[in-house]
Amino acid sequence: MADLLQEIKKRKTFGVIAHPDAGKTTLTEKLLLFGGAIQEAGAVKSNKIKKGATSDFMEIERQRGISVATSVLAFEYKGHKINILDTPGHKDFAEDTYRTLTAVDSVIVVIDVAKGVEEQTEKLVQVCRMRKIPMLVFINKLDREGKDAFDLLDEVEQKLGLTVTPLSLPIGMGAQFQGIYNLWEKNIEFFLEEKKQKVGESVKIDDLNDAKVDELIGEKAAATLREEAELVETVYPPFNREEYMRGDLQPVFFGSALNNFGVRELLDAFIEIAPMPQPKEAEERTVEPVEKNFSGFVFKIHANMDPKHRDRLAFVKIVSGTFRRNENYLLVREGKKMKFSSPNAFFADKKEVVDESFPGDIVGLHDTGNFRIGDTLTAGEKLHFKGIPAFSPEHFRYINNDDPLKAKQLAKGIDQLMDEGVAQLFTLEMNGRKIIGTVGALQYEVIQYRLEHEYGAKCSYEPLSIHKACWVEADEKSEEFKEFARLKQRFLARDKFGQLVFLADSAFTIQMTQDKFPNVKLHFISEWRD
Ligand code: G4P
């Protein structure tokens, strides 16, 4: 039997976050190439929704197929088992990404050197900061003209609220790009454009003042490099692993994923410093990975592409102990014992049935409708892992049943799609009407399409002008709350878990409501009880 501690120490589970087009897919692919998990570039399909595809159902379906294949990519590198969890960059799927971030132990943030910090990066990094997830930054596309390295570091600090320390420095950029000085290993790696799929040469430099540097990159570039290396030392804090682990310091690397440049430096530093599977807070206690008993939680549910089989794949991150095939486990919310005869483990290009999995790993469990996002699965203990919040949706619409004979199918379909986390359902207190809230408009089409094809139910939507869903925290017996409920009764709803939600029609309304009812607290995240 495998030694649990050894298995845990081997594992690194992380996500790559980026604004679309910064190079997340390319970098992921190059990491797999280094790990020997794929043999050539082009093997990993991008699962991004291409521009202009927003109203094409088949495109959505095709993308769903790809995204299950790339949900988890695992490979071995220098004795480590690395699990990369896919995080969609498209903003309509941001909620999916937020949830995936509850299952990673660290992240790599990819930034395009020409575009700098973009909107999606800002949002995702904010979530990582809130959760104190250790982050490495990779500045990509150095083969192109872009912003000055130091200006970019300033931008990263200011816009993302990070404290950075460069662990590599670019030598030139764009047409003048010569390579990377690796401050971590103290060597220079040369950029050879024609060697796109291979690893560049590297020369070890113990002292930057060595005349060899002038020979290698030319006097001018050498002088600039020396100046910049000195600047790094004086301006930026030295790398400190504890600070990185606490989320207080973020090392930065430069490179070009497409040209396979700076990727090895990133990967080597990553396996050395990135955290192994970490303890996780449950409502009851903190759960340590080394505990003998298995525990884990569902962070993603993926419906089967085949409408004839309403089979779903629940992605479970293992938090503690050893997960075993055909063993009885407790689905805590339902108090139900379940066992799994064909749990899937994920590799770079395939999934396979596994007998055992360990903390840090993701197992895919076939499910016919029992699981819900955020569910805890244990060997028997009644634990509830914290930390899968719902954020206020951006779009709201009434959902109507278009076929009275299929009301049951519609209700079931809505229920299951909400369990999967496709969107959020709010039921108005006043009249029981159902409202679907989503992060992006795309989800409405996905829902309509899937309700019809998987559940045989037809629906239509009606517009509704809501600005934000605010989860309400108040003493429901107080006079103040009663007055609030009386005045706002048309806008009060329950979410899927029965929590009271105020659907505010404008930012102004929220402000007015808060001024008028100071003891009725409004939260934009469902998990305010934390
Ligand atoms: P994403 O997953 O973050 O959305 O980005 P992706 O890797 O798909 O990369 C977006 C585009 O940027 C791709 O070009 C990709 O080839 C390019 N790219 C990635 N890394 C680098 C780099 O280091 N240097 C340069 N110059 N380009 C890079 P595309 O034209 O959109 O797609 P494709 O036709 O090349 O697949």
Automatic annotation (TrEMBL):
SUPFAM superfamilies: EF-G C-terminal domain-like (SSF54980), P-loop containing nucleoside triphosphate hydrolases (SSF52540), Translation proteins (SSF50447)
Gene: prfC
Source organism per UniProt: Cruoricaptor ignavus
Limits of the Tr-type G domain: 9-280
Signal peptide extent: none
Entry's Gene Ontology BP terms: regulation of translational termination
Compartment(s): Cytoplasm
Gene3D superfamilies in the record: P-loop containing nucleotide triphosphate hydrolases, Peptide chain release factor 3, domain III
Membrane spanning residue stretches: none
Protein name from the UniProt record: Peptide chain release factor 3
Lineage: Bacteria, Pseudomonadati, Bacteroidota, Flavobacteriia, Flavobacteriales
